[in-house]
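Margin note from the TA: students keep mixing up input and output lines. Inputs are the sequences; the output is the structure of the whole complex. Example:
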Amino acid sequence: MPSLGADMVAGTLTEWYKHPGDAIHRGDIIAAVDTDKGSIDVEVFDDGVLDQIVVQEGQKVPVGTLLALIRSPGAAPSAPVTTPVPMPAAARAEATTAAAPAPPLHPEAPGTRLRVSPLARRLAAERGVDLATIRGSGEGGTILREDIEAAASAGDRPARMRRAIAAAMTRSKREIPHFYLTSTVDFGPASVWLARWNGERKPAERMLPAVLLLKATALALLEFSELNARWEDDRVQPAEAIHLGVATSLRGGGLVVPALHHVNRKTLPPLMEELRDLVQRARSGTLRSSDLTDGTITVTSLGERSADMVLGVIYPPQTAIVGFGAVVERPWVVGGAVVPRPVITVSLAADHRASDGHRGAAFLATIERLLQAPEEL
Amino acid sequence: MTRAEVKQAVVDALLGVVPEARPAEIDPTAPLRDQVDIDSMDFINFIVALDEALGVDVPESEYGRLSTLGACVDYLAERLGVPATSA
């Protein structure tokens, strides 16, 4: 059972897409699990044969539990494993998955009689589930007890997600000695450059300011590896790559933090495409678990809602979170004269065990410097 | 094309971006952002969808003219040359 973040402790195996003896290939989706963050598909990153299934459909198991065994092509089948067992931490760290949307709900056409098992009908009444919103998985579309339980579980999801966020943020505030820095920077050059870029292109090729902010953050991190890191085993452990977790609000409430990968290596147009895809998948419930596990630092922006500044809470075991407020017009001194200028307040909340204020301030200054030359991002 | 068809295209584009939206409940004179909880990413996707559906490329400098459902229809109808009195 892969971990989708510090706030996930268990998941329910809801469906196996592959069966013992099936050939599997890197990237295949082999199972689905239900978590507090939604329904997530389990993907594999090796070729082989599905040797045996250890956790059966419907079982809820802790993070790290062995779900199945995969053998190399040509290898002999392994001895049967009958009891779910936790994986070693090292192997757990390599476990990866992908996310899929919950099954679409198709209300019956008006006048169509629903086929519902008596047990499912009673359960639906008990748990307040509207049968018209359920697609039955039984023969001929018959709604079964399992369908009602799944629907009731999905209905609880906002509350479960709230609890998951509460657990992670409480742990963060309890364990991580945060320090905070802010810097209001001139966004004029970036605004001018972006307006020119967008003015010359069709809507599908236009970019948002967020893309410039993400790229500037990633490039700045190249010089501040302790902020792109994990705090584990009483020491800071810099990440090998820069994967920005992008805090993304969900319309039903709550948020997820999927990762944009290798942001420092990419040019702005593909980053915009990836950001667009990531946000769309976050809001449609089709994230892969690797999206949710790979973030090495979090970036959050509340400028959309006109907040001038955001002071974030670090997502453990990360060591920092970068925040962006709204781009606003403010009086600004340029060449000795006060002029109106678009500015943005950049914030850093960092783990004082991993870094200090001097380094944090230098990091913010680096972001500011990078934003003054947007054409080089 | 009629105004009704322009409005339907706007609603379709909006639903493509925000499937949870309930068009019948949208006040055509109130800001869309407040009613259907869209952000700048949703809005740019909305603009892309309008471009694909109607062939109208809305310049970034005119995004402000699409703040309400009614304003969207007015703006697009104007760009498409749809008579104000068409059904």
